[in-house]
Amino acid sequence: MATTTKIRPRALVRACGGPRYAVALAVDALGTGLLRPFLLLYGVTVLRLSAPVTGVAMTVGVVVGLVCMPAVGRWLDRGAHSTVVAASMLVRVLGVALLLAAPAGHVWLFATAALFLGIGNQAWPAAHAALVATVAHGRERDAALAGGRALRNAGLGVGALLATACLAGGATALRVLAAVTGLACLAAAALAWSVHLRAHPAAAPAEGGPGGPGGPAPRMRALLAANVVYVFCLNVPEIALPMVLVTQLHASPVWSAAIFVANTVLVVTLQVPVTVLMSRFARRTVLTLAGVVLAASYLGFLAATSLGHGWGAPAVAAVSVVCTVGEIIYAGSATALVTALAPARLLGRALARFQLSTGIGLAVSPAVITALASHGSAALWGSLTAATLLSASAVAAEQDRGTRLGDCRRERRSGPNTAPPELFGGNARKHQGGSRGGYGRHV
């Protein structure tokens, strides 16, 4: 077993795709943060649309955008990973251009813009994961994926703060923010394309058995179904907690804002260290643990809301830290598990299917959360707890079936059995041999 105490930032940047690609991620995230949280406000304030119509148009755009994922997966499997990343950013540029060109009251042009923005937002995660998988391998890849998520959350947070400071300018400020978003996405696309990273999965030698690069794609049915439920944790700080704090506990909106900021800061600072810490365990085991932690936090929210006005809001804020830790563990293991299970020649399609399940979860979770909350705290948090524990059980049960199908062998081939020395510094103890030895040995 390897124990790591220090992460080398330069090596982590190289594993994420290199300095130029890291700059592209930062610029894209910063620009996206300027507009993405305020797209509804743009439709209402600038285009003079009603809030319900704007919300429906945005939802339709996200859902229809999911239809593109199979095509994105096939494109990725042809090897042009940096090109697909750049294309996902350019699609958002087109969406911003349509926003700026849309006249007041033109709902269909706004809906089309939301569609292009949705396509870009849905395609980017799978394309980014495929690109990182081209550069890094094994547990180095897991840390690189975690680093990319931390960087993106930091950029989104800074962009949202800058946009909030500019909102006093009204409709004119929103148009300027949209224009800056388009320019940022355009610059990020140029940087990402210039990396010229291309995989050649078809050239990989086919190994015997289902675990080799030439083997069949893993079904991952339980994993994909469970992911739809796991994804609900991403909308808990943005939807569930503000609704509970304001409508049930009658707390100040400041509590909601503080929880959201704390969630962002924790993700940015802890995503990589926690992912590295969890790398001593099998990825599927870590994903199961994430479900248990999330379920425990949901029970904690149920207990906190029972305290009523006064102690309820501080208790909810405290439990939100546990929920964020569960989110960090989930985010650090889920995509990494998919990249470890999928054969190189089918990695793009596997990531596209995973992103499809993520998009479905993000699309339905607001409606499900609000519907459950209307029946009380017990219905909301009790249902989320039961569904998450059931999903965690399904992920764990699929491990036994995956062992017989060769999924464990597939992950063992995904990387070295020791901590990558170029990425991790400090004290690293390498245990050679044995059934529990090293990195990347278990699903």
TrEMBL record:
Q: Where in the cell is it found?
A: Cell membrane
Q: Which UniProt keywords apply?
A: Cell membrane, Membrane, Transmembrane, Transmembrane helix, Transport
InterPro entries reported in the protein's UniProt record: MFS, MFS_trans_sf, MFS_Transporters
Provide the Gene Ontology terms for cellular component. plasma membrane
Q: Which domain of life is it from?
A: Bacteria
One Pfam family it belongs to: MFS_1
Q: Where are the annotated segments for Disordered?
A: 401-443
- Which segments show compositional bias classed as Basic and acidic residues? 401-414
- Keyword Flavoprotein: yes or no? no
Q: Where is the composition biased (Basic residues)?
A: 428-443
The keyword Repeat is assigned to this record: no
The membrane-spanning stretches of this chain are: 21-43, 49-72, 84-102, 108-138, 150-170, 176-195, 228-249, 255-278, 285-304, 316-342, 354-373, 379-397
Q: Which GO terms describe its molecular function?
A: transmembrane transporter activity
Membrane topology, as annotated: Multi-pass membrane protein
**Name under which the protein is recorded:** MFS transporter
Q: Which organism is it from?
A: Nonomuraea montanisoli
